[in-house]
Amino acid sequence: MQRSLDKVHKMVFCNSHRVDEYLKTIWVLEKEEGKSIVRVKHLSKRLEVSMASVVEMLKSLKTKKYVEYEPGEGVNLTPEGREAARKLVRNHRLMEVYMDRKIRIPIDEKMVCGFSHHMTDDFSESICSSLGHPKKCPHGFEIPACKAPKKNLEKKKYGTLRQPLTSCFLKH
Hints:
Elements: H1 2-32, H2 40-47, H3 51-63, E1 67-70, E2 74-77, H4 79-102, H5 109-116, H6 121-130, H7 166-171
Antiparallel strand pairs: 1-2
Helix pairs in contact: 1-2, 1-4, 2-3, 4-5, 4-6
């Protein structure tokens, strides 16, 4: 049973991460590199995947309403896609700062990716506050500002820590 759950988790986890990587990459190309239209070849080169893989993912992202895509015309993020990508980039860069400044360990991109894909808005804002609201990541890139209204992040009581491991797999 555990083996099949691991397989399901890996498939969902990997697919979810691939979507996130595409969204972040399109966001960076649009916002930071000033591309008004992101071309399939730009994504293929940046993500180191075939152009056919890019086209397949763009079709999927279009059905999820994350991108506007027409073959031969390129791609742009929709408002929903742009907001999702902004949060992912913000979370990623905050985790880099956290590793660099707070816990003073070398930045491990795989670990940063793992954390950043699963951060809630409250967690992200708490990390940002604990870091003094940094403006740039250790690589010198701007950290997107928080768009959520500031909340009073009081301590909340959560469930027990002895929840079954399988609940993690089923939430994705």
